[in-house]
Specification:
The protein is 40% helix and 19% strand. By secondary structure, the chain is an alpha/beta fold.
């Protein structure tokens, strides 16, 4: 999944788009996204359940075409697994109703930022796929599809990325200025509130846009890495992992490898929410009913694997802001070592995914 990062700390007028690492090389997302893949695998049976129990096949019987969008698809085979799980579940739904010969044609829209490596993605698609594939470039924080055109929307390990860094955390005159830090979880209450508010704003917008694009009766499945309700941000496993990136950059600044001012003007636009926060966004929107909402276990990878996962997601943005000469030392040495050293602490932290299935309600 690509994300947005402001490169102008005071005015927030310029946005730089940096996707996950493309290609198929050592540090690519396609080679370093098993953590994200396990979330898709963990949700498979819940996807089956949602489609078996909540999907009314009448919503697309007139067109005989079932349209699926995977938002924040990135590159590699994770997105292919996710959409195949949906297609298999829809076909089983038809079989269960004695209509195995009447299943629809499937069209799949793979969405991510325009700078995503779509070439690598489409190269990964095997021949003779049971659907028509198309790429849709653009941020899911904006409209992507015509009104009432989608029957199933899927998004995994993507909606935790914010549309931007909250303005206040980069404003030297604000109480929420996140000086000397690049993450929110171990910072001041004002910083955490700024990120919390930005996530709420982004989710409100996300729900509004998807309500326009999904047909009445259509489903949306969201998988977000997050935290348990009432769990402090400092006790969430992924926040602990991102804190090691922050700590490593601070160490580099102390050694004079990077300038402290570069840290002051840099924040990672990510937020790990709870189910309670997602539920609040759904209720504020009012266009969807909550069909399934639960936490799913998310296995913690070994420190070296987690370091590679972080690099695959952050390398482009780190390179843009700090230069590419620090990448190997930052991730392969400092972050990896800090994850090893903190393994006893992170062992007690919860690693969970948020799984939510929503159904588009009729317009009132």
């Amino acid at each position: 999944m690509a994300f947005l990062l402001s490169s102008t700390p005071s005015l927030m007028t310029e946005v730089v788009v940096r996707p996950m690492n493309g290609g198929n090389g050592l540090h690519s997302y396609s080679k370093n996204s098993t953590f994200q893949r396990k979330a898709i695998e963990a949700a498979k049976e819940l996807i089956n359940k949602a489609i078996a129990e909540k999907l009314d096949i009448k919503i697309f019987s007139s067109s005989n075409s079932f349209k699926i969008a995977d938002l924040g698809c990135s590159v590699g085979t994770n997105t292919l697994l996710a959409v195949q799980n949906v297609i298999d579940a829809v076909e089983r739904k038809f079989q269960s109703q004695g209509k195995s010969t009447q299943h629809p044609e499937f069209q799949v829209f793979f969405n991510d930022q325009a700078s995503n490596d779509f070439n690598q993605l489409f190269t990964s698609i095997p021949p003779n796929i049971p659907y028509f594939a198309a790429g849709v470039p653009g941020s899911f924080h904006r409209r992507l599809f015509p009104n009432n055109s989608l029957h199933f929307v899927h998004s995994s390990c993507a909606a935790q990325w914010l549309s931007r860094v909250p303005e206040d955390v980069l404003d030297k005159s604000s109480p929420a200025w996140n000086k000397g830090r690049v993450h929110y979880s171990n910072s001041t209450p004002q910083v955490m509130k700024a990120f919390e508010d930005q996530f709420a704003e982004d989710m409100d917008n996300f729900m509004k846009l998807r309500a326009q694009e999904i047909v009445v009766g259509g489903l949306m499945a969201l998988i977000l890495p997050g935290r348990l309700n009432e769990t402090p941000h400092t006790e969430a496993y992924l926040n602990k992992a991102f804190e090691q990136v922050e700590s490593s950059l601070i160490d580099m600044a102390k050694k004079g490898i990077i300038r402290e001012e570069k840290i002051d003007s840099f924040n990672i636009p990510i937020y790990f929410a709870s189910l309670q926060e997602v539920e609040s966004a759904v209720k504020r929107n009012g266009c969807f009913s909550i069909e399934i909402m639960e936490n799913i276990p998310h296995e913690k990878p070994q420190p070296k694997v987690m370091s590679s996962t972080l690099r695959a997601g952050l390398e482009g943005t780190i390179k843009e802001h700090f230069g590419d000469e620090i990448l190997d030392e930052l991730f392969d040495t400092l972050v990896c070592n800090k994850l090893e050293e903190s393994s006893l602490i992170t062992e007690s932290c919860k690693s969970v995914g948020l799984f939510v299935v929503l159904k588009r309600k009729p317009n009132e």
